[in-house]
Design a protein that fits this description.
disordered N terminus, Rossmann fold, DNA-binding, six-stranded parallel sheet, 3 domains, 360 residues, disordered C terminus, homodimer, alpha/beta
Chain lengths: 360, 360
Amino acid sequence: MSSQPDPNDIRNVTIMDVARESGVSYSTVSRVLNGYEFVKDSTRQRVLETAERLGYVANLQARSLAGGRSRIIGLLVPGLDNAYIGEVVRGIDEELARANYDLMLYTTHRHRGKEPVYVKTIVNGIVDGLLLIVPLDPVAYLKNLRERQFPYVVIDHQGFDDFSPTVVATNWQGAYDATSYLIQLGHRRIGFVAGTPELSSATERLNAYQAALYTHEISFDAALVQNGDFQQEGGYLAAKILLNLDVPPTAIFASNDSSALGVYDAVHEFGLRIPHDISVVGFDDTLQAAVMYPPLTTVRQPLMDMGRTATRMLLNLIKGQPPPNHRIVLPTNLVLRGSCQAPATTSVQSTAQLSERRMK
Amino acid sequence: MSSQPDPNDIRNVTIMDVARESGVSYSTVSRVLNGYEFVKDSTRQRVLETAERLGYVANLQARSLAGGRSRIIGLLVPGLDNAYIGEVVRGIDEELARANYDLMLYTTHRHRGKEPVYVKTIVNGIVDGLLLIVPLDPVAYLKNLRERQFPYVVIDHQGFDDFSPTVVATNWQGAYDATSYLIQLGHRRIGFVAGTPELSSATERLNAYQAALYTHEISFDAALVQNGDFQQEGGYLAAKILLNLDVPPTAIFASNDSSALGVYDAVHEFGLRIPHDISVVGFDDTLQAAVMYPPLTTVRQPLMDMGRTATRMLLNLIKGQPPPNHRIVLPTNLVLRGSCQAPATTSVQSTAQLSERRMK
DNA sequence: ATATTTTTTGCAAGCGTTTTCAAAACATTA
DNA sequence: TAATGTTTTGAAAACGCTTGCAAAAAATAT
């Protein structure tokens, strides 16, 4: 009985089966499935119905091979060991689900050389478009993507070209606000834990830190800027150097929350208290920030929103609708919590007591 | 010049191009690429070399359509809003990268009905195998997978059948240890914030809690068990009920770290201190646990390891090597941090003072 | 040198779709 | 009623790869 398909049949039901069952050609079935206009309504109904009845599910590979849409988008991330990435991915995932798209995840594990290879595979592969979160080496392959007219959107990195669709946060403004806040609290010696210099977000934050000092007429001391790596370990190391300075800072601005965690570690190791002895500010507002003790004052990035926005942009690009602006900038804002207060010595200069605690 | 391929050519280089360039048939190229044994060494060399030179990258869709391996595995997760999932995924990702596989991520967003649909799409799709993290409704489709001989491994759920390859942690033992620890500290009234009862991990933890009480001859009080949902909010609500009890507990064991966070919230809302007024234990040891204040004593699950192990199992399954055991159990262990101490009233029974603080 | 076996290779079919092109069916007009 | 125009449908060619089968080439045995 062809109308009684064996439910235990191992083979999948194809467009052919649906065609046979509904008495039309497979081309017609394909057209119905793709919403082609010129199909008789009654035919459409019948096909749709048998497809449903047979439990037909499109074979994406075949579809995409034949030139159709796969409804899969690729996501290239440096790594998963990071709450920050996780948040962005959540936003992407949410928006994708709403649009009925699936997600293919590529992790480069921070291996720079892997990026171009991945991108190549991705592009000649199944995905309809590509999302890149903080790419390490975009210039190496974005030009190619563009030439192929392959849809892509870059998240949280900019400045390497001026044609790539990009979603970023106001890194500069956020860092400026944070620094200004510390200054307004009375801090004059503010340490800065920098991020990976290849990333525009890192350099922007550093620039804003300097700009804020400048605006408030505080002279810049290069010793107060130490390199971190956007990870806890780097923050810890950088903070140790800062706290060992002859005149240590009364506040430390870490380039992201992970580094701030490292700063907390170092501060505690020196037997100091936050915020009493030293204030700390982070950047990102990941889940951990609110849970830390004391809760971390930090610059909130709308991470999920960035993911969502980028996804919407990409989906439009795939539909052939280029976005009005190539670059979308989302606002950050300073979240005040318990990790900051006015410096212990209300009068500014005498950090003498503090520096006595310095570790050898 | 056929030997000078245009680098700007939009079309991808195919197996045909490689064949033409190296003067063999496309089948031979395919064989070389798939490591087929009976190819003359010199031929193999030549093909490999031209493939490299031309920058050939296999088209996964075509390969998988034709019946080959896609080197992609699918991962079905309930959601991304959870540090716990993230950890497992990291383990998976790591192991997959090592084996040169890619990852396709499917999120059900905790929508039970979506699971079967997804599984169907996945199976007739591109992936070579499927990993399922805490599936909500496995019975609905695992039988089908098995019948099709489709490789899959279940992570952190068990008990719904006895043939599915599974990786779990010692949930029972972990919860038993945690409860015993609290009892040894002197606690007699121990609250329990339960997890989602559909998950075996949740019921096992509850059972172990009861077993530990029983072993130590502490009578079970149903009022001390409140339902949570494995999320912060549920933990908060459950803890509020517990703290409002006529004789509130002196310790609360939360079914996972997220719930424990909610417990912290409730405790603070009641103006109580951890661990001075009340001890708290969690489960999972996610990244947050160490950062919370006070640092959370919790049962560590080897999450990344679970991901890695499951992935290795799956990869073997795909290769046609069934694992020696269908079910792999990884050990948990209790991580002692600052959220527990002996109950304030060293003598056990008089919890009078505590209950006075009770909120109206 | 010839027959036989074994190793290598090529051809063709097929995987499940989309899409172009042309034919069939239907509706409309003269 | 014939001619013309439209809407619907079907057949066939791709898409890029794997694989069974058979032929060619090389190696071995007689």
